[in-house]
Sequence to fold (230 residues):
Amino acid sequence: MAYSTSTSIRGAPRMGKLYKEWRRLRNQAGELLYLVGEAEDTGHGKEAWRVYEEWRTGKLGFEEAKKRLEKLLVEAKAAARA
Amino acid sequence: MGATVPTQQRALCFYLNTSILIRALEDAEAGELLRECCSRHWCIISGIHWLENWRRETREAVTRLLEELGVDVAEFFNHVVSRINRRARLLIRNHGWSPRRTLDLMHVLAALRLDCDGIIAVDRFIARRAKEYGLLYVNQYTGCPENG
Fold:
């Protein structure tokens, strides 16, 4: 499903480079925080927050952080079913 | 006893969304709005701001701006951040919004949790949510509101 996160307002001045970069990072933060919250619900919050912090501080790329969080969630759900 | 005593108009409490802080670094008009609002009203940010992933230079510039404006920081305990996150996810699921909007919603929910009168931002999504939750929405087009 395609989502729009457009923030443009008709007639408004164009957003600058800094704003566009921040918006891209804010979208990534949102996606990761959604997964962190899901992981918290399965009792794996500590590990999830560690991954998030690694991404936030630049030690981990977005794709890698997302992959790790998704893996954590899959494992947590499998463990809950077992 | 019991008579209403006329009081001075009170200053309002505004939550500063990160979007307006970033915009203020690039756009003089947004900066002017922030200066006016922060001098007339009580402007705050919350611990949710520390969840943002900023480049070091951007973080330093925002920190300098917040100091210049005299903005207070309302910190949350971790369990409150978790509750705000849970509420944001619930709203996202119920409304079919993008998970990318989790942090945007967390800021709006933080403003509600802190009992703010309004939110200053540059974002159509936040503008709509603010309206739905009965918060005043302020940007450089609405201008700084009068005292309440």
Remarks:
- The first strand of chain B starts at residue 13 and ends at 16.
- Helices of chain B lie at 18-26, 28-40, 56-69, 78-95, 102-113, 124-132.
- Chain B touches chain A through 33 residues (CB under 8 Å).
